[in-house]
Design a protein that fits this description.
The complex is a heteropentamer, with two copies of chain A (349 residues), two copies of chain C (262 residues) and one copy of chain E (325 residues). Chain A has 349 residues and is an alpha+beta fold. Chain A contains eight helices and 20 strands. A six-stranded mixed beta sheet of chain A has the order 6-7-8-3-9-10, sandwiched between helices. Chain A is globular, with a radius of gyration of 24 Å. Chain C is mainly alpha-helical and 262 residues long. Chain C is globular, with a radius of gyration of 22 Å. Helix content of chain E is 41%, strand content 19%. Chain E is built from 14 helices and ten strands. Chain E has helices at 17-32, 43-52, 65-73, 93-102, 118-121, 149-159, 170-179, 190-198, 212-218, 247-257, 260-267, 285-288, 295-299, 305-323, and strands at 7-12, 35-40, 60-64, 105-117, 139-142, 183-187, 204-208, 222-225, 231-240, 300-302. In chain E, strands 1, 2, 3, 4, 5, 6, 7, 8, 9 and 10 form a ten-stranded mixed beta sheet that branches. In chain E, helix 1 (17-32) links the parallel strand 1 (7-12) and strand 2. Chain E is globular and about 60 Å long. The N and C termini of chain E lie far apart (46 Å). Classes of the chains: A alpha+beta (349), C mainly alpha (262), E alpha/beta (325). At the C-D interface, helix 1, helix 3, helix 4, helix 5 and helix 6 of C face helix 1, helix 3, helix 4, helix 5 and helix 6 of D. Bound molecules: adenosine-5'-triphosphate (ATP) (2 copies) and magnesium ion (MG) (2 copies). One adenosine-5'-triphosphate (ATP) sits between chains A (13-14, 19, 37, 39-45, 83) and B (133-139, 164).
Amino acid sequence: MAALDVKNLALSYDGKTQILNDINLHVQDGELVSLLGPSGCGKTTTLRSIAGLIKANQGQIFVNGKDISKVAVYKRNFGMVFQSYALFPHLNVADNVAFGLKNKHVREPELSKKVDEMLDMVGLLDYKKRFPSELSGGQQQRVSLARSLVTEPDLLFLDEPLSNLDAKLRVEMREMIRAIQQRLKLTMLFVTHDQSECFAISDHVAVMNRGTIEQFDSSEKIYHEPATEFVARFIGYENFFSVTKSLDRQHFLLKEGQVFKAAGASPNSSSLTIRPENIDILETQPDADGQNILPGEVLFSTYLGDSYRYEIQTALGTVIAVSSSDKKYPAGKAVFLDFPSRKLLGLNK
Amino acid sequence: MAALDVKNLALSYDGKTQILNDINLHVQDGELVSLLGPSGCGKTTTLRSIAGLIKANQGQIFVNGKDISKVAVYKRNFGMVFQSYALFPHLNVADNVAFGLKNKHVREPELSKKVDEMLDMVGLLDYKKRFPSELSGGQQQRVSLARSLVTEPDLLFLDEPLSNLDAKLRVEMREMIRAIQQRLKLTMLFVTHDQSECFAISDHVAVMNRGTIEQFDSSEKIYHEPATEFVARFIGYENFFSVTKSLDRQHFLLKEGQVFKAAGASPNSSSLTIRPENIDILETQPDADGQNILPGEVLFSTYLGDSYRYEIQTALGTVIAVSSSDKKYPAGKAVFLDFPSRKLLGLNK
Amino acid sequence: MATNQHLFMRIIGIVTLFFLLAPLLLIVVTSFGSEPTISFPIKGFTFSWYANIFAQDTFIQGFITSLEVALLASLTAAAAALPAAYALTRKRNRMNRFLENVFLAPVMVPEVVLGFSLYSSLVIYAHFPLFISLLFGHFLICLPYSARLIIAGMRQFDGSAEEAAWILGSSRLSGFFKILVPNITTSILSGFLLSFINSFNNIPVSVFLSGPNVNMLPTAILNYLQNNYDPTVSAISSCLMLLTLLFMLLAEKKLGLKGFVS
Amino acid sequence: MATNQHLFMRIIGIVTLFFLLAPLLLIVVTSFGSEPTISFPIKGFTFSWYANIFAQDTFIQGFITSLEVALLASLTAAAAALPAAYALTRKRNRMNRFLENVFLAPVMVPEVVLGFSLYSSLVIYAHFPLFISLLFGHFLICLPYSARLIIAGMRQFDGSAEEAAWILGSSRLSGFFKILVPNITTSILSGFLLSFINSFNNIPVSVFLSGPNVNMLPTAILNYLQNNYDPTVSAISSCLMLLTLLFMLLAEKKLGLKGFVS
Amino acid sequence: NAKGSKSLTISTFGLSTKQMQTDVLTPFSKKAGVKTNAQFGDSATRLTQVEKNKNSGVDVIELSQNNALTANKATVFQKLDFSKLKNFKYLSKSQQKLARQTNSIPYTINSFGIIYDQSKTGKITNWNQLWSSKFKNKLAIPDITTTFGPATMYVAADHVGKSITNKGGAAAFSALKTLKPNLVKTYAQSSDLANMFNSGQISAAIVGDYAVGMLQASNSKLQYVVPDSGTYANYDTVSIVKGSKNLKAAYQYLDFRISQSVQKRVAKTTSLNNAPVNQKVKLNAAAAKNKTYGKVADRARTVDFNYVNKHLKTWITRWNSLINN
Ligand SMILES: Nc1ncnc2c1ncn2[C@@H]1O[C@H](COP(=O)(O)OP(=O)(O)OP(=O)(O)O)[C@@H](O)[C@H]1O
Ligand SMILES: Nc1ncnc2c1ncn2[C@@H]1O[C@H](COP(=O)(O)OP(=O)(O)OP(=O)(O)O)[C@@H](O)[C@H]1O
Ligand SMILES: [Mg+2]
Ligand SMILES: [Mg+2]
């Protein structure tokens, strides 16, 4: 029901530091777009200024092609999950959730029915009569989520709506959000710091850095083809190797003298990168051509439940690799690292 | 410097609903123990009652063998990261962090040095003069973390201290916490809903459920040998198969008639379970003995970045499987599921 | 945590309370004294001073007028202070801080002079009815109390709940009444009570703004005390205390039902 | 968002402000009138009424006494109200809610009677010095204002910051002063100002608690007004306003430096 | 503020509102068949109001003598036609003269004397005794702004044997200066006195006779004396406010106020305790006690409020700087 266009948004709180810098976004009707970015990069600020809670210094916001800067907040039919929940302290859980519906003149018995349904979905039906101060952190967050979803707004902003929930509930909730979003064709802007959540739920992802959007693409594109080193680092690439020059379409000479084959990297890549979990750790040197194989020594390991994370000393510096937890390599152990050529990515910024 | 013993802790806020139920915990000196559990299970309440902020109805708390229930909060030399941060609104970032040090009569120039060092570690050195209301959510959380760490307390409670940070920062911060903890031999109680974080950082993990501790064990043990179905579900086992009877030491007859081989399951297991990522999805029936192989049909898939999550219809009901994102199976596709016998776990509760 | 320091605070609290209550108790006790002048300790016991209250027309009539004026003035003051405080607190700049202080200023003018000026401008110059002018005078002395308390309350209340209300479709006005106001009821009520009591007790403003049929209780009592100092005044005070107590218990019962911690 | 409704609120705010300021302006204007009685509009212009203030010893002396009493009484009241309010707000139960209301009660007793009872008990029965008794009387009328405001402020302040302070090694007392108090300064200051002004203006309590060397400004002005109603009283009021204004600007400058939003 | 012709608004003192209502207003209402409205308050305040506010709605006003003088000068009062007052002839010559001068009818007279605790001071018969060092820090006198303030100035001037009208009252101030060591307080409320006697702060005071009964009730040891050398009288007067819509009832009220029956009724100590001016009223000894009646009335001289009001402003200033410092 709502397509959102943000044009050249710029904002500063104090007139000195620029917090948002020429933000441009296009969210299609019924799409879910995630904002991903480091702490303090301006995600919340972006949402708040689109919602009309703070005035941008510059830029325009269009909903369905109409500039809404003159429309009062309460007429915009938006929804929001605040990072700090912003529950109504004097209303109980049910009344918090019912608040927006009442503003839309939804009457009993429909009102109660909708509220109960929604509370059931977030697992808080038994907490209807509680006040916010009597809830746990995660329960408060779910009330905030329920409150924003129940009104089925044209455009919904979710500012880290699941940050205080346990893994299982997170998955349930995000699936619920996605299901509602798709069923009702809601348009959503979603802020999260959890990348699997982000990729699981988004049609498009905007990666922000210091008040600008570094890359705005489909989830898959962002994940597999980060445009810049910043984006790559941010979404989990941890090993970066400087390229001195490309030898041919697939082979690259690294600064340290090694030659790596990177199947998909463009010839003008200035560096190669790979995710820790894509590096294979071998105990013996493989018999194969030896391409992309590097000896190293385990420095340190961390247990991650389903896997171990290793810091490994190599000729290319410390390499981070993650491998399944079936087997653990002790510190000091000599290993060989295999960098699959298909997994090595070329970056030129 | 501090070993913590919690004995038979019980608590109710309203005298009716029991929130904590006979909690027992033993945290050794210099150990980091995580509390893991669903939203609302009582993690925050547990921390607050150990810290002395709420009075338990029952039970005792010993630090280094001494009952501390009569010791005033401020003499306990504890630290805490509050789930809601609880920053001092009238103090700037530097003063927030310096607060505890001043109480310990740390003087300039050491005071500033310590504060600056700590702020540097959490990446907020440039924000020294800001007030909490002028920070983003994640920045506030880091101030709270810095404030609690800088005093090097005997016993530190961290209540979801990283929930509002992005993935990269989370890893950095948790490694910093772990490093400080190990360097100074601090004893910590850590609440998190992020399991990889939990396993990465903890010596022991206590899994809580409705105010009781379901399992208290080393990280590895919890991960690989969950004691109950609740724990298993909570840490990511999503497929549960009821056992009708065990045929021999390794083979189990399932309710639906299938026979599964589970290498490590005890004969009196009442159900078998497996993680979605441990199920292999095959396109063709393997030639092998066919044991633990089940045909199925893809119902639905979700993109998770590094992998896809599938719901697959089988004779055992809907099975959840996760496989690397190199290949995607479309809905409707007929596949074969391989349940590796080593990965099938037996549960008897 | 019942630490020593908490105890210390409690003790100060109790001592303070004692200081507050002792004079009240004294008044109640003297109201039963049989001697014809207020004296402590009392020698005999009588109810006759209570009977005498009702013989004093000006007390009864004054009580009604004072109650009327105090109620109307403090209600209108609260009603005016609410939006004014809101306009002032939503933005925290120098101008607003200054205006906020202005809200306190009128009472810095000796209230007698204020009363007299109102008398000479409103009643004499502008021919306003006396009662209206009296009300206005009391409104002016009530306003700062309501305004201060409401401003303090609004300052402390986190604005994001209001933002949430707007986003959920509440206009500014409705967000104001549905979210902000219910969360600062303590402040609003306290402001109302303070201004009510201030108006009810006020003498200086009413001195000149009085006339035939406009008698205020405190003035009546002051007049009475100039010629008599029998315990009738203690008796009427005790009655007022009793009234307040009853009112408080009633309010407590009605309001106490709302189980929320504000 | 400058919506219409916001405008509406601002308008009410401005109208309210106008009502507050108009009488003040009136007083200032009349203080320059050359006629021998306060009148509006003024016909001539003179400064002589300002000169006359200084011819009135009781004004100067009364001002000093009133200032002294008001300062001391409101300071002690604030000091007593702080711990008492704390003891009351930390636990929110029936008992505390009731006691909280008691803090308001003494003023429900006509202040004249309160003053008179204090006079007959403290001065006459217990032989307390007059000035001390006067102070005590004013302390009693100041207490509710400070207490109410501080209670309202404490109610609104999130307790978890205080908890954080305890955990960081602050005793109750030090957490109270370092965390709670700085965050409710608006309330404390407002309470102080309200009680100061209430005490400074008060007549009823002081009526009987007066003596040879104890003259209060409002009483002096009232007495003066009964014999003269020349604009001297307007002049002294204008001086007081000016003083307040200067004081406010000064405070603004000093306190304004602290850049925090409370 | 149009009052129906059937009502009369009376502005009067607020000291004994109950007795005023039952013993004066209600009977008058009955007799004249008009409704009465009352305003109670200080004399000076009420004067200010009727003087400044032409629409005050007050028909008849009862004031202190010097306020009446001021009011008459400011032409606040209706010029009286004394022939409409049947009882006017029962007033004394000097009272009639005062009435003609001020357009107001004196309806009661007060004077002042010395009240003292004989057990502490011994017998007092003479104003000059107050200057004795025996009374050091034991004496209270009325404040200059109160009813008997000016009269106290007269007594002070008498003490040094000079006329008050000489050099703007300089004599009185020199006498007050020597009196100062004896003064504990200049009081504004007579109830203050009772407290000070009871607490032993003072043992003697100059006081108006209307307060004596109350003082003696609170302390049975107190004696009241009007020195033979004389005292000063002060009247309370009743006048018609110019512009009254109900002149007929107003004259009726004035006449009623000085009628024999009313004067006798309000003279009782249980009533307003007003000393009568109607010469046909005879009081028995009990009722006459502590009133400006009979011999005391004969000794009472009048205060020249014309002179006093002219100097009052400077007197107050001098008084305050002399005594209240
Ligand atoms: N003040 C209170 N009054 C009544 N019940 C409360 C109060 N605080 C918490 N509870 C209830 O106690 C239970 C435990 O709360 P707690 O905050 O300890 O949960 P938690 O494990 O920290 O949850 P989360 O992960 O959501 O923060 C919850 O069900 C909650 O609703
Ligand atoms: N009221 C304010 N005044 C001044 N600066 C502010 C204010 N609010 C936020 N900032 C600054 O603006 C920047 C962006 O803040 P914002 O809250 O948008 O970040 P964010 O991306 O949401 O971060 P997080 O993930 O930590 O919530 C931060 O550096 C923050 O310090
Ligand atoms: Mg944010
Ligand atoms: Mg919690």
